[in-house]
Amino acid sequence: MPTNSDRILYIGPYREFSGAGNSARNYIHALYKAGYNVCIAPIYLTGDIYPENEISSEILPLENNYLKKYDIIIQHCHPFDYIQDSKFDLSVGIFQFNTQNLPKILRSRFSLVDKIVVNSRLNQNILQSILSHKDIDKVKYVPELISNELKNKDYSRYEWLKQSDPYIFYAIGDFIPRKNFLTLASAYIKTFRPEDNVQLIIKTKPHHLHNNYDILYKEVDYEISRIYDANKITKSIAPNIKMMMGKFQYDKLLNLHYNGSCYVDISKGENFGYATLEASLFNKDIIVNKEISSAEIVNTPYIVSSNMVSVNDPYTKSFVDNNTHDTWTEIDYNSLCENLRLSWLNRYSHINNYNLQPYSYENIGNLLC
What we know:
The protein is of the alpha/beta class. It contains 12 helices and 14 strands.
C-alpha cells in the first residue's frame, strides 16, 4: 500500500499543449498536494509545447528533484512506450483513449505495469472487457481534477456581447472530425434564426499533425458555406457563428466559459471531456452526447441520443490496427436540435448544481498510486 513517504518518478507530457498534457499537469499537482516526494520528467507526444509560464510554479521545480531511489514509477504515455523495471516497487501506467476498442497488439503491453490508471468509467469498462483475465484487476479509475479557486479569478464580459447579451452556445477543441463541430454548426443553423438572439462560439485550432492556420481558415469557411447552402439560407439571415482560433492562455480559455451560456460536447468519442468539467465549474448549462465519458461528469437534462458507428477519422484510425474493428458514436441530429432549442427555451430558469467534490485535489492525489 503506497504511503506519502514513497518516492515517485512521474514521466509524462506535462510540457505539451494537449488533453494529455493538461491531465499530466493536474495529476502531478495532485501528487504534490498530497505530499508525495515527486520527481518529474517530460515526454513529448505531439511536439506542441505548452507555454512554460502557464505551468504551475509548484510543478516545474520537481524536474530537479532528483532522488537516489524511487519506489514508484508513473508512466503517463502510450503503452508501446511502457518499460518494465524491477527496481521499482510499483509501476503505474496512465492511459486515456477516445474510442471503444484497442488494437490487439497493444493489449499485451499492459502486462508491463502493475496498475493501469484511466480517467473515466467508460475507459475502465472498455479496458476490463478486452484485457486478459490476469490484467483486469489492474485497471483503476482516477478522474481528472479541477480547482474551485479558478472560478474566483477576475473575468470580464466580451465587449461585443454587452449590447445584445445573447444566449451563447460554445464548444472547445481541435478542428477534427471527432469533435463534431460541423454537425453542431449545422444543427444550430437549422434550429435558430437571428431574431432568437443566440450565438455559437467554436474555440478551435488545427490538429498538431497539420498545424497550419491558413488551411484551417479556408476549411472552416468552405464547410460553413456548405452548411448554409444545405439549409438554403445565406449568412445574412443565419444565426451568428463566431470562430475563435488559436492557442489561448488558460485564463483566456476560462474567460470563454465565463461568457458562455451553454457548453456543447457532442464529440464522437472522449476519454474525459475536461472542458465539460470546466463548464460545470462555472455552472453553465451543458449539452452532452450520452455515450461518451463527458456524460459521467455532469448531471444535465440536455442529453443527446447517439449510436455506435465505425471510426472514420484519419487522426484516430492511425491508432487502430487492421485486425481491430473500432467504433465511436454518431449523434442523433434531431435530438441535438431538440436539446439546443430546449436549453435556449429554459434560459431564464437556469438552475444547475454540479457536484465537483470527486474532482478535487484532495481526492485525486492518493488515488493515483
